[in-house]
Amino acid sequence: MACAWLTASSLACRLVNPLSAVNGGVWVGATPVTWRRIDSVTAREKEATNCTGSPIPSEATPSWFQLHPRLVDLIFIIAIFSYNVPIQFGAVPRHLWLGTGLVVSIGLCAPGLMRRQRPVTTYVVIQLVAVAQSLLGISLLVADAMLLLAIYTLASRKGWWLSGGTP
């Protein structure tokens, strides 16, 4: 178990610790984190093995969702908007123009495209559109879920103090 945390260098596993009889073979003066850093810099092998010969899993590769966050946001926003389009016609009061619901839906969904870069701006724009929606008498829409997403993004990226929570 003394070398089990070494990552790539088989040579490091063969090094002899002069105090191995005293401390049970554990390296003195170097932490596993230090050895991981040294190994990751000095030996970038495709298939690393530890002292026992079993393969060491490589660093976690990012998922497709992590590699393409803007595309994921776009797909999510298109899904919400397209689900919202048939519903919004019934949510608009009769005294308003029928396209008002479509304008409100666009106003709720479109700012979501910039939520990762500008979370405060996104939240303010979506909040203003939601207030206008309430003042116009338009009932709740599916696109109002974008307000919850904007609050989540604001809290996760800017801290609780800005999103209305307590520190």
TrEMBL record:
It comes from Corynebacterium kalinowskii. InterPro entries: DUF7134. It comes from the Bacteria. Residues 63-162 form the DUF7134 domain. Pfam families: DUF7134 (PF23539). Residues 1-21 form the signal peptide. Keywords: Membrane, Signal, Transmembrane, Transmembrane helix. The chain crosses the membrane at residues 71-89, 96-114, 134-155. This is DUF7134 domain-containing protein.
